[in-house]
C-alpha cells in the first residue's frame, strides 16, 4: 500500500480554488458531487422553508373544505383559551400538506406487495393521504346526510358534530372503504400538526397555540434563563419568519 | 474509455510552502546569483508576501499562468501570464524590463494599469524584485496567451496611463525613516510595498488613485468594505494589540474576529505564510498609523424605532452566536461590540454578510472555518436595516444608521452577481 | 455496466462518526482515502441555519434529515412465525442519512459502558454461576476489556468536547460523578451543563431515596471548546432542538463540528455524496475485497477499487452490506450456526410520567443530553441474587425538549381533542416531568438480521429483515427498574404519577430509540463473531466493519461513546498493525 510520509504531506500545500467538483461531466442533471480540499460554502446557501400563502384551496374541493374546516373547529374548538382550529388555519395547513410531498407519501417505501400485517408492523396500506382524505370526507358527508336527514357534517349542530367525531374515534361508525379509524387518526394528527407547527405552514395563526401553552417557539438561546428555576419565561414566542416587533413590511 | 482522474482533485499544488524560517530575508544586498537556492527561496517568500498568485491565476488554472479577471470601476483587467514562457509569459523579459514593470508600471508591450499595484511595488528594492524574478524563472513555462487589457474606450488607451501617473503615481524605492526603529521600517516596507495593503484598504479618487491623506482608512471594492486598518480607536485597529494583529494575519482569527471575504484569500495565500518577525513588523507599523477619523459619532438613540425593532430581531436571530452582549465567542463567532467593521462609515460588508452569509478562513492553526448563515430569506430590507442600525449603536458602538435603500441596492447587486 | 475508477488506498462506506474518524486517522497516515456517502453533503451554516433549524414539523415530524424509506428500509417481524413486512415509515428508530450520519441528529448523551459490560457472560458466571444466566440469552464477551477501551474513550470524549463530571479517576472516587463507572484517566474535557429545574428536583429526590445522582455526560458543550484537532465549538444555548436536528450553534458534537473542518482540508481525502455503495467486491478467492461498486444520483454504476474497505454505515446497513456482498456466513436461527446477523439487540425503554401543581419547569429550555441520572440499577451495579433477570437500566431525568407537536403530556383519561383536551394540555405543558429507564438489551437465539425473501430496495437488492421481540429477561429487568423509578417519583411528590411499563410485542411504530445494535459482532471466536477485537472481518481481512454493529449485546447506555472509541481502536490497529503486515490481525 502506498504511503506518503507525514512530513512530505504536510509540506505540500494546496490552493483550494475549486473545492467542489462535479463528478464526471459526461453525464447531465443533478450530479453526484465530489468534495475535497476545503469545506465547501457558497453565498446564499441554504434551504429555507417556503411560507404558505393565503389563497385558493390547492387540494380540497369547496365541499371538502367546508367539512374539514368544521372538523378542525371541533377538534380545536374556540373557547377562552384560544381561537378555533378553523381560524387558526388548520384546514389551510392540511390542504397545503396534502398538496406537497406528504400527500403522496413520497418519502415512504410504497412498493408492494401490500399485506395487512400486525399493528406493530406499522403502516401497510397502499392508500395515500390524499386518497384517504378524499374518500373519508366523502364517506363522512354521505353518512351524515343519511343519518341526519340530508345534512352534511358542516351543517350539523355542534353537539352532533362532536358525537360523530367521537364515534369516528372509537370506530363505531363504519365509513365503508374509508377505514374509519385510520382516517380519524390521520385527521387528528394533521390538525394537531397544523395547530402546533410554525405558522409558516398555514396553521397556528399568530402563534396562538404557543401563546396558549407557553412555548416560546423558534428561539435558539435560553442561556440567560437556565438558572431561573420555576419562573415564567419572559420573552414572547417567535416564528421562523419573525414576530410583529421586528417591524418592516412583511 | 479515456478518463481523466483530475476531476477528483481539481486542486492545484502550489510550490509556495512557508518553509521560511523566522529570520527575515536580508535586503539591500546585490542579488547576483539568480540560481542560488537562497535567492530563489527568498523570491518565493516575497512573491507570497506580494500575493502575486491571487491575480495571476485563473480559477482552476495553472498558478501564475494568468487569467483572473479583475472587475475594476473602469472595466475588466485580466492578470497576465507571469510564467517564464517566452511567447505568452515574461520569459523573454530582461531583468531590467521586469524591474521597470514592477517599479514604474511600464512593460515591454506598453504601460500597465494600476490594478497591477506598481504604485506600491515601486517601493520594493531592486534586489527583492530580482529575487522574485529568480523564483518566477523556476516555474514551469505555461503557454497561455492573455489579453490583460479588456477595458472599454478611452481607458483601453494605454497612453492614457501617462496622464494618470502624473496625477496619482509617485515612483521611487522605499526610504527607511531613520527616526523609526528597524522593525517599524520593515513593517512600512511590507505594508506600503509588496503587501500592497492600500490597494484595498485606501480610499480611491474618482480616477482610482489612492487618496493618500486617507491612507489605509478603508474602502469599498467588489461589494466588500475593506476596513480602516490604521490605529483609529473607533473604526480601525485601535482596540487590537500588536499580538491580535499578528494572530489575525497568521491564523485568520483572533480573540475578536475571523477573516472572511477577500481578506480570507489574502490570509490563505499570503499573510499566513509570512514569518513571525515580518508579521510583528507589519503590526508595529499599522499600530503607528495615524488616522484623521478619531471622533466618535453620536449613537442612534435606543428608543429610535429602528433600534427597538433591531433589538427584537437581534435577540430572536443573532443572540445564539453573537450573544446578548455582542461579545461573540473567541475564534468562532466574531465580537460585534467595539468592532471596527461594525462601526465603519460604510456598512457594505455588514449588509452583505447578513444577506448572503460568509465563511471564515481556515488555516492549519485555526481550521474551523465557521460560517455565518444567510438571512436574505428571513429578513426584508427594512429589517436588515433596523438590525444593523441596532448592532452599530449598541454596547458602546456608534455609527450612522443603515438605510433600507442601501440594503435593497446591495441585495439586488448580489443577486445579479449570483 | 460499471465504469472503473482509479484505485484508492482506502474506500470508506458512509461518512458519519466512524467514517470521519477513520478517514482522519488514515489520511494522517498518508493514505489516499475516499468516502462514499449515499446522502447529501451537509454543514452547519448552510444546512442547519439558526433561522430555520427550529422547525419541528420539518425536522422532527417529517424527518427531513433522516434516511427516506423510499431510498432504503428494512422489513420487520417479531418472530420467525410471522411474515416480515416492510417498515414503510420509520418510527421506533430513525436511521440517519448524509454527511455526518446519525452524528448530526443525535442528542449527545455520551456514555461509557461498564467494565462488566465488556465481559458480560464471564462476569455474570463468575458472580452468580453460569446457570444463573437465563437459557434464552446468547450474551457473550466482547473480546476486549474496559481497560483496553479506556484510552479510546478518552480520545473520543476529548474530540467531542463532552461535558460531565468524573466519578472515578484512576480508581479514586470523585464526588458528584457516577460512582459506578469504570476508572477513567482524567475528568471530562468540560464541566457539566448548567442544570435545569426538573433534573435538579430528580437529583434531590434520588439522593433522598439513597441513590447516587450525577449529571449526564453530554456532547453538548457547556463552554466554548477547542478540541484535540484544533476545531472550535461554541457553548450550548439550551435551545431544545437537538435530537432530529442539526446544531446551528457549533455546540453539539458531530463530524461537522469536530472533524470535518480538518479532514476536508486534506488533499488526500475526498468525499463523494449522493452515491450509494451497492456491494463490496471480492476477488475469486472470496477472501479479499477489491473495492466497492456504487451508484451515483443518475443511476450510473462505478467501480471504485481500493486496498482496504471500511464499512462505516449505520449498523443495520453495515450488516446489510456484508450480507449482499457475501462476506461471512449468514446466521441461521434454526441451527444457531453462521454469524452475520446474529445477536441483533436494541434498547429497552420504560418511564414514569409525573404531573405537578404549581411548578414551572420551562421544559423547552433543554439540550439533548442535559439531565441527572442514577446508575444504581444499571448493568450489574446491584446484586441480582434472588432476582429473576440479568442486566439493568439507568434512570434519568433528561428533558431533552418540549416541542409541542409531539410533546404535550396530559394525564391518562384526558380526551385527545376538544375543550377538555385543550385545558389539560395548557395546564400540564410546563409542569410535567418524565423519568426514563434506559435498559440494556440482551441477545437471544431468535432475534437476528438476515435478507428478506420478498421485498427489494430501489437498486433491486433484497431488503434487510429484522426479527426481534423483547426477551422476557429484559421485560422483567425493565419492570424492576421502572418500579424503582416510580419510588423516586413518589419522593418528588407530584400530583400524579403515571408509570409506562414496557410490554411485548416490540412495535416499530412509536419512537423508542435509534440504538440498534449487533449483527456484525466482535469477539474472540470466529464461530460466534463476525469481526475480531480490531473490528476486522474474520473472513475478508481487508474489510473492517465499524459501528454499533460490533456490540455483542447492548448495555443500559447510549452507544455513541463506545462507537467512537471502537472507531479509534480500529484506526489504531490499522495504523500500527495492519499497515505493517496486511492480513488477519488475530489468527482465526
TrEMBL record, chain A:
Designated name of the protein: Gluconate 2-dehydrogenase
A Pfam family of this chain: Gluconate_2-dh3
TrEMBL record, chain C:
MF terms (GO), sorted A to Z: flavin adenine dinucleotide binding; oxidoreductase activity, acting on CH-OH group of donors
Entry-linked Pfam families: GMC_oxred_C (PF05199), GMC_oxred_N (PF00732)
Oxidoreductase recorded as keyword: yes
Domain Glucose-methanol-choline oxidoreductase N-terminal: 232-345
Coiled-coil intervals: none
Keywords: FAD, Flavoprotein, Oxidoreductase
Keyword Endoplasmic reticulum attributed: no
Annotated ranges, domain Glucose-methanol-choline oxidoreductase C-terminal: 447-567
UniProt family annotation: Belongs to the GMC oxidoreductase family.
Name of the protein described by the UniProt record: GMC family oxidoreductase
Originating species: Phyllobacterium phragmitis
Amino acid at each position: 500500500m502506498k504511503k506518503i510520509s507525514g512530513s512530505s504531506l504536510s509540506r505540500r500545500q494546496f490552493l483550494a480554488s475549486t473545492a467542489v467538483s462535479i463528478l464526471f461531466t459526461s453525464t447531465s442533471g443533478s450530479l453526484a458531487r465530489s468534495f475535497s480540499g476545503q469545506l465547501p460554502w457558497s453565498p446564499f446557501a441554504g434551504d429555507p422553508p417556503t411560507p404558505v400563502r393565503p389563497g385558493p384551496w390547492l387540494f380540497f374541493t369547496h365541499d371538502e373544505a367546508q367539512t374539514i374546516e368544521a372538523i378542525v373547529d371541533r377538534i380545536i374548538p374556540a373557547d377562552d383559551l384560544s381561537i378555533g382550529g378553523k381560524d387558526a388555519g388548520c384546514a389551510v395547513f392540511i390542504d397545503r400538506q396534502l398538496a406537497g410531498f406528504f400527500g403522496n407519501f413520497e418519502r415512504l417505501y410504497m412498493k408492494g406487495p401490500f399485506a395487512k400485517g400486525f399493528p406493530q408492523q406499522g403502516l401497510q396500506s397502499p392508500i395515500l393521504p390524499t386518497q384517504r382524505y378524499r374518500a373519508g370526507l366523502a364517506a363522512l358527508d354521505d353518512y351524515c346526510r343519511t343519518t341526519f336527514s340530508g345534512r352534511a357534517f358542516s351543517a350539523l349542530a355542534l353537539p352532533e358534530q362532536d358525537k360523530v367525531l367521537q364515534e369516528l374515534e372509537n370506530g363505531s361508525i363504519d365509513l365503508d372503504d374509508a377505514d374509519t379509524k385510520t382516517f380519524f387518526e390521520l385527521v387528528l394528527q394533521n390538525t394537531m400538526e397544523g395547530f402546533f407547527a410554525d405558522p409558516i405552514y398555514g396553521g397556528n395563526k399568530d402563534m396562538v397555540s404557543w401563546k396558549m401553552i407557553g412555548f416560546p417557539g423558534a428561539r435558539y438561546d435560553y442561556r440567560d434563563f437556565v438558572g431561573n428555576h420555576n419562573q415564567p419565561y419572559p420573552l414572547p414566542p417567535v416564528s421562523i419568519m419573525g414576530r410583529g416587533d421586528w417591524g418592516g413590511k412583511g | 474509455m479515456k478518463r481523466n482522474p483530475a476531476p477528483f482533485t481539481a486542486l492545484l499544488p502550489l510550490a509556495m510552502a512557508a518553509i521560511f524560517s523566522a529570520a527575515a530575508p536580508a535586503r539591500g544586498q546585490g542579488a547576483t546569483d539568480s540560481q542560488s537556492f537562497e535567492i530563489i527561496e527568498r523570491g518565493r517568500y516575497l512573491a507570497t508576501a506580494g500575493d502575486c498568485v491571487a491575480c495571476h491565476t485563473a480559477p482552476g488554472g495553472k498558478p501564475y499562468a494568468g487569467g483572473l479577471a479583475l472587475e475594476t470601476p473602469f472595466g475588466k483587467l485580466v492578470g497576465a501570464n507571469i510564467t517564464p514562457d517566452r511567447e505568452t509569459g515574461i520569459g523573454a523579459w530582461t531583468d531590467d524590463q521586469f524591474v521597470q514593470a514592477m517599479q514604474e508600471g511600464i512593460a515591454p508591450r506598453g504601460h500597465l494599469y494600476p490594478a497591477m499595484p506598481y504604485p506600491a511595488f515601486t517601493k520594493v528594492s531592486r534586489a527583492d524584485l530580482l529575487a522574485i524574478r529568480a523564483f518566477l524563472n523556476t516555474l514551469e513555462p505555461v503557454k497561455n496567451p492573455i489579453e490583460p487589457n479588456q477595458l472599454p474606450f478611452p481607458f483601453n488607451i494605454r497612453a492614457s496611463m501617462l496622464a494618470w501617473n502624473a496625477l496619482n503615481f509617485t515612483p521611487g524605492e522605499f526610504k527607511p525613516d531613520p527616526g523609526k526603529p528597524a522593525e517599524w521600517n520593515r513593517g512600512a516596507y511590507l505594508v506600503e510595498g509588496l503587501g500592497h495593503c492600500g490597494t484595498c484598504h485606501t480610499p480611491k479618487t474618482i480616477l482610482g488613485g489612492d487618496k493618500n491623506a486617507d491612507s489605509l482608512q478603508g474602502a469599498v471594492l467588489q461589494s466588500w468594505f475593506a476596513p480602516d486598518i490604521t490605529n483609529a480607536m473607533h473604526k480601525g485597529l485601535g482596540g487590537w494589540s500588536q499580538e491580535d494583529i499578528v494572530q489575525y494575519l497568521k491564523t485568520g482569527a483572533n480573540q475578536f474576529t475571523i477573516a472572511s471575504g477577500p481578506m480570507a484569500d489574502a490570509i490563505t495565500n499570503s499573510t499566513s505564510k509570512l514569518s513571525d518577525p515580518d508579521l510583528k513588523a507589519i503590526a508595529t507599523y499599522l499600530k503607528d498609523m495615524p488616522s484623521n477619523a478619531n471622533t466618535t459619532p453620536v449613537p442612534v438613540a435606543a428608543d429610535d424605532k429602528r433600534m427597538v425593532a433591531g433589538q427584537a430581531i437581534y435577540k430572536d436571530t443573532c443572540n445564539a452566536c453573537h450573544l446578548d452582549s455582542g461579545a461573540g465567542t473567541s475564534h468562532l463567532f466574531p465580537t460585534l461590540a467595539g468592532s471596527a467593521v461594525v462601526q465603519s462609515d460604510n456598512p457594505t460588508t455588514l449588509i452583505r454578510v447578513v444577506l448572503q452569509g460568509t465563511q471564515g478562513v481556515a488555516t492549519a492553526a485555526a481550521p474551523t472555518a465557521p460560517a455565518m448563515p444567510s438571512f436574505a430569506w428571513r429578513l426584508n430590507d427594512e429589517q436588515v436595516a433596523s438590525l444593523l442600525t441596532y448592532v452599530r449603536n449598541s454596547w458602546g458602538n456608534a455609527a450612522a444608521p443603515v438605510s433600507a435603500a442601501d440594503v435593497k441596492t446591495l441585495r439586488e447587486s448580489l443577486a445579479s452577481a449570483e | 455496466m460499471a465504469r472503473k475508477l482509479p484505485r484508492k488506498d482506502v474506500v470508506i462506506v458512509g461518512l458519519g462518526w466512524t467514517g470521519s474518524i477513520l478517514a482522519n486517522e488514515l489520511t494522517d497516515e498518508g493514505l489516499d482515502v475516499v468516502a462514499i456517502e449515499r446522502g447529501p453533503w451537509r454543514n452547519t451554516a448552510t444546512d442547519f441555519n439558526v433561522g430555520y433549524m427550529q422547525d419541528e414539523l420539518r425536522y422532527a415530524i417529517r424527518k427531513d434529515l433522516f434516511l427516506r424509506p423510499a431510498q432504503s428500509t428494512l422489513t420487520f417481524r417479531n418472530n420467525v412465525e410471522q411474515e416480515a413486512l416492510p417498515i414503510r415509515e420509520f418510527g421506533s428508530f430513525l436511521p440517519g442519512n448524509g454527511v455526518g450520519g446519525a452524528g448530526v441528529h443525535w442528542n449527545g448523551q455520551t456514555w461509557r459502558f461498564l467494565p462488566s459490560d465488556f465481559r458480560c457472560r464471564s462476569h455474570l458466571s463468575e458472580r452468580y454461576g453460569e446457570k444463573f444466566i437465563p437459557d434464552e440469552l446468547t450474551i457473550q464477551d466482547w473480546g476486549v476489556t474496559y481497560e483496553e477501551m479506556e484510552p479510546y474513550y478518552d480520545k473520543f470524549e476529548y474530540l467531542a468536547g463532552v461535558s460531565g463530571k468524573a466519578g472515578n479517576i484512576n480508581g479514586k472516587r470523585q464526588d458528584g460523578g457516577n460512582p459506578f463507572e469504570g476508572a477513567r484517566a482524567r475528568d471530562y474535557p468540560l464541566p457539566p451543563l448548567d442544570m435545569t429545574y426538573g433534573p435538579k428536583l430528580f437529583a434531590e429526590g434520588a439522593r433522598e431515596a439513597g441513590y447516587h445522582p450525577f449529571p449526564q455526560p453530554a456532547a453538548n458543550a457547556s463552554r466554548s471548546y477547542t478540541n484535540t484537532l484544533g476545531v472550535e465549538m461554541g457553548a450550548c444555548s439550551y435551545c431544545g432542538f437537538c435530537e432530529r436536528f442539526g446544531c446551528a450553534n457549533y455546540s453539539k458534537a458531530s463530524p461537522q463540528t469536530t472533524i470535518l473542518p480538518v479532514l476536508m482540508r486534506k488533499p488526500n481525502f475526498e468525499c463523494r455524496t449522493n452515491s450509494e455503495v451497492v456491494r463490496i467486491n471480492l476477488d475469486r478467492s472470496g477472501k479479499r475485497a477489491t473495492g466497492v461498486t456504487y451508484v451515483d444520483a443518475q443511476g450510473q454504476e462505478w467501480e471504485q477499487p481500493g486496498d482496504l474497505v471500511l464499512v462505516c454505515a449505520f449498523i443495520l446497513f453495515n450488516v446489510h452490506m456484508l450480507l449482499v456482498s457475501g462476506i461471512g456466513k449468514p446466521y441461521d436461527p434454526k441451527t444457531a450456526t453462521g454469524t452475520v446477523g446474529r445477536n441483533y439487540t436494541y434498547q429497552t425503554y420504560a418511564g414514569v410520567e409525573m404531573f405537578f401543581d404549581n411548578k414551572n419547569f420551562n421544559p423547552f429550555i433543554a439540550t439533548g443530553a442535559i439531565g441527572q441520572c442514577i446508575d444504581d440499577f444499571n448493568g450489574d451495579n446491584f446484586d441480582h441474587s434472588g432476582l429473576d433477570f440479568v442486566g439493568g437500566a439507568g434512570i434519568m431525568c433528561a428533558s431533552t425538549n418540549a416541542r409541542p407537536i409531539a410533546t404535550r403530556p396530559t394525564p391518562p383519561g384526558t380526551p385527545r381533542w376538544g375543550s377538555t383536551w385543550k385545558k389539560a394540555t395548557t395546564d400540564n405543558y410546563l409542569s410535567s416531568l418524565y423519568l426514563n429507564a434506559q435498559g440494556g438489551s440482551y441477545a437471544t437465539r431468535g432475534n437476528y438480521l438476515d435478507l428478506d425473501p420478498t421485498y427489494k430496495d430501489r437498486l433491486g437488492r433484497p431488503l434487510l429483515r429484522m426479527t426481534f421481540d423483547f426477551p422476557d429477561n429484559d421485560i422483567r429487568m425493565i419492570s424492576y427498574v421502572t418500579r424503582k423509578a416510580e419510588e423516586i417519583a413518589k419522593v418528588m411528590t407530584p400530583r400524579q404519577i403515571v408509570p409506562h411499563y414496557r410490554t411485548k410485542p416490540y412495535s416499530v411504530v412509536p419512537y423508542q430509540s435509534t440504538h440498534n445494535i449487533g449483527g456484525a459482532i466482535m469477539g474472540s471466536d470466529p464461530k460466534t463473531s463476525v469481526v475480531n477485537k480490531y473490528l476486522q472481518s474474520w473472513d475478508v481481512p481487508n474489510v473492517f466493519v465499524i459501528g454499533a454493529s460490533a456490540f455483542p449485546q447492548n448495555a443500559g447506555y447510549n452507544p455513541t461513546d463506545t462507537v467512537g472509541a471502537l472507531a479509534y481502536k480500529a484506526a489504531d490497529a490499522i495504523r500500527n498493525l495492519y499497515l505493517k503486515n496486511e492480513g488477519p490481525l488475530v489468527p482465526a
